[in-house]
Design brief:
This protein is α+β, with helices and mostly antiparallel strands. The chain is built from 4 helices and 6 strands, in the order H-E-E-E-H-E-E-H-E-H. The longest helix has 13 residues, at about 100-110.
């Protein structure tokens, strides 16, 4: 995952919950929305444990600026765990990342019971626009 250095990671749930209490929200957002790429932190479950997700959500158009893609790229979830930190990158076939997209992505990640390390692609662009 190439964007890990873009945010200061949080690995401790207590720290995240304290910061969320200060902010009064369900996630910590770095930057402003709408945008083509956003960084955030939120809690969720992974491998049966409550974790802090240090996440990046980006449009496939933004992803294509930095990576070679097909004409009809698939959306993806990329999960890694390094030095005690859970990283999550999600590429979506949307025009822009806004508050609604962020909240829907968080719900999707929290509801998906079989998340695994690595990159997982799903759905072609033409089927998701």
């Amino acid at each position: 995952m190439s964007l890990q250095k873009s945010i200061q990671p949080i690995s401790d749930l207590e720290t995240l919950n304290r910061l969320l209490g200060d902010e009064g929200g369900d996630y910590l957002l770095d930057g402003n929305v709408p945008d083509n790429i956003v960084w955030l932190r939120f809690s969720g479950r992974f491998a049966g444990q409550e974790v802090v997700w240090n996440a990046c959500i980006r449009t496939m158009k933004e992803y294509a600026l930095h990576h070679q893609t097909t004409e009809d790229p698939k959306q993806y979830i990329d999960i890694s765990y390094e030095k005690g930190v859970h990283w999550l990158e999600v590429g979506l076939n949307v025009d822009v990342i806004d508050k609604t997209t962020i909240e829907a992505t968080i719900i999707m990640i929290r509801n998906y019971k079989r998340l695994n390390l690595g990159r997982h692609e799903y759905g072609a662009r033409s089927k998701t626009l």
